[in-house]
Amino acid sequence: MTDTGEAPPLVRLEGVGKNYGNVIALRDVTLEASAGEVTCVLGDNGAGKSTLIKIVAGLHRHDLGTYEVQGEPVAFSSPRDALDRGIATVYQDLAVVPLMPVWRNFFLGSEKRKGFGRMDIGFMRRTAKDELAAMGIDLRDVDQPIGTLSGGERQCVAIARAVYFGAKALVLDEPTAALGVKQAGTVLRYIVQARERGLAVVFITHNPHHAYPVGDRFLILNRGRPIGYHTKAEITREELTALMAGGAELEQLAHELDAAASGGAPAKELAEGADLLRKTD
Hints:
There is one protein chain. The protein is built from ten helices and ten strands. It has helices spanning about 50-55, 80-85, 100-105, 120-135, 150-165, 180-195, 210-215, 235-245, 245-260, 265-280; strands at about 10-20, 25-35, 35-40, 65-70, 70-75, 85-90, 170-175, 200-205, 215-220, 225-230. Strands 6-7-8-3-9-10 form a six-stranded mixed beta sheet, sandwiched between helices. A four-stranded antiparallel beta sheet has the order 2-1-4-5, covered by helices on one side. Helix 5 (about 150-165) runs parallel beside helix 6 and helix 9 runs antiparallel to helix 10. The longest helix is centred in the C-terminal third of the chain and has 16 residues, at about 180-195.
């Protein structure tokens, strides 16, 4: 709790680090996720995003720094502990059973039961349909196998499920990574829906063009360390792209392309490549 009396962020990491033996996987990471905000975590492969997810989700404990939920220090020993505190994680490889109906996947592992232990199928069908509609997901039939849905629709079912089961903070692991443009747009709309419903959303991605339209805060990781942490008012889309891509590395590559072009290589293509890198930077 701050001195001003304001509610603390739902999730706060301060100076968090994680080692695997002698390997430094994460170091000095600070992040906040407040209700009604989307905090984007960006980085290339090997940047430390997966390790950060595992710490927030309760899979691994942090070795350094502090992890707080609603102002209270925590050290989760399992994902169930995190769920009990309202932190739900939707992983890139969704835990769904493709041949089972949508409603069955919606309640998978948390089935509603009535007398004599029988499943209350009517309740689960109605609830799944209503909750998906509340998130703006209009499915023709919740009895259809979830495997028949698009990748974007399956991601949205997982988000709606987490919200229904009491998530206050939602961690999304690369939800748009394997999707086309239209399906990625669908997922981004539902991320905004979750934010508008008052959830704290942590959006893990390597794509700044997906992060910037929906994000309120941006944490950029590189080789396990933060290289930038900004609010939307502090950074433009172009600056975010350059920071994540590594502006110095791109500039060095542009110089190398210039040198290669002047040395008799296919000059036009190399020169165009150098110009494109500079525009990205």
